[in-house]
Amino acid sequence: xxxxxxxxxxxxxxxxxxxxxxxxxxxxxxxxxxxxxxxxxxxxxxxxxxxxxxxxxxxxxxxxxxxxxxxxxxxxxxxxxxxxxxxxxxxxxxxxxxxxxxxxxxxxxxxxxxxx
Length: 116
Known about the structure:
Pfam family, one: RibD_C
Strand order of the largest sheet: 3-5-4
EC number: 1.5.1.3
InterPro entries: DHFR-like_dom_sf (IPR024072), RibDG_C (IPR002734)
Protein name: Dihydrofolate reductase
Strand content: 25-35%
CATH topology: Dihydrofolate Reductase, subunit A
Radius of gyration: 15 Å
Domain Bacterial bifunctional deaminase-reductase C-terminal: 8-107
């Protein structure tokens, strides 16, 4: 909860193949041409774009070279199953650690930028 308070104040982009409209304030829905739409948004300014909970979309964005950095949240739970975040990576991706942030709930944020 403590690391998500900022969320209600930002513009959200929802990636969905089925949802066409949202009655949510500050929300844009992308249902097709993901790479083109994200490139368009990136060209509009210097604001950060964060992707939450979409391994398929993240994999596409990684493959297209559209991710500039990662905020990885390490949770104090070990899972035996799940969809890996990093899969089918063509080339090595060099990351530089920018910051870390431990939270009282046990979660630790690792903030990396992609080099080159």
